[in-house]
Design brief:
alpha/beta, Spore Coat Polysaccharide Biosynthesis Protein SpsA, Chain A, 9-stranded mixed sheet, two-stranded antiparallel sheet, globular
Length: about 230
């Protein structure tokens, strides 16, 4: 199975550090390298990395790192990286097989708790956390599930019972829905997930308090460094 990594955005909330977000380092490893290593732990060796903002810098950086010699990488450029991240997901359409894994580049995970995730069945399976201990709910995407399936997904949900961890197993059936939402001006990946869940149903993989964190701000970075150094 291939893994798609979204690494195209500008990362405005953390751009004051002077680096494109995928190259921000924690304990000597960039966020991009950490995401690749996470998938290697899950036995993934083929990657589609979607880049946009400072794409050449990101590609040149990874080319010089040892990890790039251990995996197969297909670089896909999104020239419209200033738009919603659903556009970046759509850029991967012609490079994936019937099923693929997908992650944001700025989410960190404890690999061991996700070992069974790639073997799950479903056209859209979302990793969720119903007992979050590390991530901040304020800026996170929320999920409401009921009777074993996801009913709603979105950042503004008032009634929710889990957080979206930013890791997904998808089939290519997601792309027609994604095209619809983008055509309507709803360009965020959350919009396509929410519509797919409402119209076709979405499965979930609940890590129930396992370690993961979204590194979206300088404060998140400080927190992530502290948490990882103590683990």
């Amino acid at each position: 199975m291939k893994a798609v990594i979204l690494a195209a955005g500008q990362g405005n909330r953390i751009s004051s550090l002077g680096l494109p977000k995928p190259l921000i380092e924690i304990e000597g490893l960039s966020l991009l390298e950490r995401t690749i290593l996470f998938f290697i732990y899950l036995q993934v060796r083929k990657f589609i990395i979607v880049v946009g903002y400072r794409a050449t810098e990101i590609k040149n950086f990874l080319k010089e790192r040892k990890i790039s010699k251990e995996v197969e990488i297909t670089w896909v450029e999104n020239p419209q990286f200033h738009r919603g991240n659903g556009v970046s997901v759509l850029c991967a359409q012609n490079y994936v097989d019937d099923w693929f894994l997908l992650s944001m580049v700025d989410h960190l995970y404890e690999p061991a708790i996700f070992l069974d995730f790639p073997s799950r069945k479903g056209d859209l399976v979302c990793a969720v956390d119903s007992e979050p201990r590390f991530a901040d709910p304020q800026g996170a995407t929320k999920v409401f599930f009921e009777d074993g399936v996801i009913r709603k997904i979105g950042k503004s949900l008032k009634n929710y019972n889990a957080l979206d961890c930013g890791l997904f197993l998808c089939s290519k059936k997601i792309f027609p829905v994604l095209k619809e939402t983008i055509r309507e001006g709803r360009e965020e990946w959350d919009e396509a997930k929410n519509r797919f869940a409402r119209e076709y149903g979405a499965e979930f993989f609940d890590i129930k308090g396992g370690f993961w964190i979204d590194v979206d701000t300088p404060e998140d970075l400080i927190k992530a460094k502290k948490l990882l150094s103590s683990r």
